[in-house]
Amino acid sequence: MPTATGNTCKELGVLAWEKSHRKLRNPSLISEHRFIASSQLFQPNIKTSASGDRRSRRAEMAPRKGKEKKEEQVISLGPQVAEGENVFGVCHIFASFNDTFVHVTDLSGKETICRVTGGMKVKADRDESSPYAAMLAAQDVAQRCKELGITALHIKLRATGGNRTKTPGPGAQSALRALARSGMKIGRIEDVTPIPSDSTRRKGGRRGRRLRLISGTPGTERGSSSGAELGSAA
Predict the structure, then answer these.
(1) Each residue of 9-24: pLDDT tens digit?
(2) Bias regions of kind Low complexity — which residues (predicted)?
(3) What's the CA angle centered on 54, arms 50 and 55, to 5 degrees?
């Protein structure tokens, strides 16, 4: 740094040394002593002891990288709501005699949140519509809804409908009960089975669907609305 006189500290140190060594007349010796003085005046203090060497090495070394504790970021999915406030979704339960669908959407019905069927939980085809498969499907749906922050559900229950059966299958009641037991709050329950004002012809023919009797003799047939039975009754 320059001082008040305009000289640096190094220059001042050399000048002070020259004043104390004016007896030297040889210019080569003067320049040599000048260099030695300048180098000695501004060298850092070096400790020759072993402990000093270790301390200086530690000071020069980079600091140790310890195990940095990473803050666990809590990722919350779903809408940001106040504590204790319910977030509703819509659970569409389609229970036929072949399978059971448990399908959760938002209130508009456009966005699917989770959908599990009874056939996804069992291996045998005959068990797809069973109450047990419907219960497992509903439990998976409830768990996924909790992860996404949905705490309550409106239920829309339906059967096949149309010109077929209007009665829900065996998995409907089991699925609804499993949702309630899993901690989901139930809002309104609505039956949305499609009922036609008029419909196309039902399949099965004029004589109806005929089933072969298991306990009877082979070849015998049973009709639900056969013309022969109607004629004998008349």
Answers:
(1) 556 555 665 655 555 5
(2) 223-234
(3) 115
